[in-house]
Amino acid sequence: MIDNIRNEGYDLSFDFQHVPFNFKKITCGEFVMGASDFRKDTLPQHKVKLLSDYWMQETLVTQKQWNVLRGKQMEDMLSESNFDVFNGVGDEYPIYLITWYEAVEFCNRLSKLLSPYNLEASLPTEAEWEYACRAGSYLPFSFGDSLDGRQANCNGEFPYGQYELGIWRKIATPVYTFLPNPNGLYDMHGNMWEWCLDWYSETYYTDSPLCDPCGPLEGCKKVIRGGGWRSRAECCRSAFRDSDSPNYRGRSLSFRIIIKQKFKNHELSE
Q1: Which domains does the chain have, with CATH numbers?
Q2: What tens digit of pLDDT does each residue of 86-112 get?
């Protein structure tokens, strides 16, 4: 059962079995999606309008949150994996080795718990993800135009926007290690890739809808965003798009949740 649900100003938070889940309000609006100086799957740059507000989880789903809701311990997942080395184990580290289907199941379980409050959980579309990541910025990153591993967890031996080499930690970091973006969201750049709801298409931007794009109707791979601790800095750009099979389990691939009201005419009481 959900406990102590709080809608304080723009933020939303609640506890499940004494484990907190915290979300930041993202007010709907218009932004320019993609990049004109980058890979062809980010072309063409185009205006996108999101028509509904939503709350986005301020961090990646942690191993503690996964364990308490999903009921499968990280240690069991590690023992079933083919990887020899694991990089980040503990309650405040992001969950990983999670398929897209398992991430969706996690959201569905949470939606059932939130249903009495007129709320539902899901993965973000990549448009919702990029809009929240940019936080009003049109620069490569929400914090500026360069990254070397000091501002976010990535492979700083391949920096972006500068020649000087940076830091590569070779491990995930706990979710509150770096400063949040202006929307109050942590690790939107680096640390772990994030599953999005959409199927991936390299050419999707050529004819995607202006309002609330949600990706192709079908495909072979799902969109992932944000870059990870193993990624070159350029892969952590706000506009960078990549993809993986929805059955893939990656040691630098995680997810975060968004929450929306199911019925707009029913406001969550503060």
Answers
A1: 2-261 (3.90.1580.10)
A2: 688 899 999 999 999 999 999 999 999
